[in-house]
Design goal:
single chain; 465 residues; alpha/beta; 14 helices
Amino acid sequence: MFFVLNGVFIITVLIFSTYLMLTIFSAISLRRYLRKNSYVDYNSIVSSPLAPSLSVIAPAYNESPTIIDNIRTLLSLYYSNYEVVVVNDGSSDDSLEKMIGHYELEKVNYYFDYRLPCKRIRGVYKSKNRSFKKLTVIDKPNGGKADSLNAGLNVIRNDLVVSIDADSIMEPDALLKLAKPFMEAKEKRVIGAGGVIRIANSCEISGGHIDKINLPKQFLPRAQVMEYTRAFLMGRMAWSELDGLLLISGALGMFDKEILIKAGGYSTNTVGEDMEMVVRIRRYMVDNGLDYDVVYIPDPLCWTEVPTTVSVLARQRSRWTRGTMETLWTHRKLFFNPKYKKLGMLGYPYWLMFEYLAPIVEFLGILWFIFLMITGRLNWPFFLLLTGFVYFFAVSLSIWSVLFEEITFHKYEKRRDVLRLIGTAFLEPVFYHPMVMLMSIKGNIDKLLKRNSWGKMERKGFTKS
């Protein structure tokens, strides 16, 4: 019992120390970013002849409720030289018919090579209306998101590629902020850039643009706001600073097309294609002796709808867990491998121990607690002290992330919303976190039982103002 209690204490201290260190690195990095970009004139990027050409690829599967507004948003982004490529991934609803009707599309002869494996493309559509000349729609049988992104990569001709979920809404200046690191690169080649993803539930949206930002009314999406704020502002910001970033969210990321294609494109053998691709292009650069950088931008660049029911959230988290397992196993060579520097010595071990194994250890700890309680061997003073410490540390970390948000980007302008978010910080460890932990365990079980389905994600659509 003595060794178990001391082991639990040591693990707890290690976890808290790691999170505290990441918080400090995030604060330093965020302050540096804000200072550096406080006088940036993004209009100069729009007018610059050196601005890279971009292709925005948006896979769409059964996105009928939001597809028209989201394409309208993509077509109105503030950037001079870009195209929008929507890949209809064999939708069974009327997504394609809506796009054809609203944007006056017609099938055209379009030359391209199958540089990356994907389902056979049935047709490429362009608009008869010159107002929509930036838009290209690809129609293909259903093959999944990775297959759709590969299809888009086969068709596009621009230098940089932006991958985005079709149900997401980008900020008007998102492309400018993502392109800036690629233009500034000198000694190192920037191969990827990602930004903050925010939650659009309960926001008022019209014409594909956010008119008013509101905190979600329901507890489940509101808890995800807290979770996303912590993950992006305090997690990925720190790992970008430490050069150990393993993930750029599939909801929005910009990549060097040449490197992406040379590395093999997106893998169709995993449900976590976004994470696996980032790790693979980083390995490609190291294996070929090329200096590179993967950049994270703390600006809120994209808004997305998150699950509002436990069942949909469970399917999403199971998929995330399975994707993490597949990526970590595929790239197990990285584990404490000095050849890959911080990626192998810091990034991969952290993700393995704190992102993947932590829920399993936590679940086993709960089972151990139940066993000790039943057998009457539980040290109640130690248990209550440890539980209280863990709870208040978790709450403090969440409140600190809210503070980060308020002193930087201040997206929630209503004082009531900020107070409700702080209130959520006190409820999340008790009601939301245990549920997500169990969903992660289910993801492990699903993987072991070879349940590899993507899982249907119902969309409610966005609120009209």
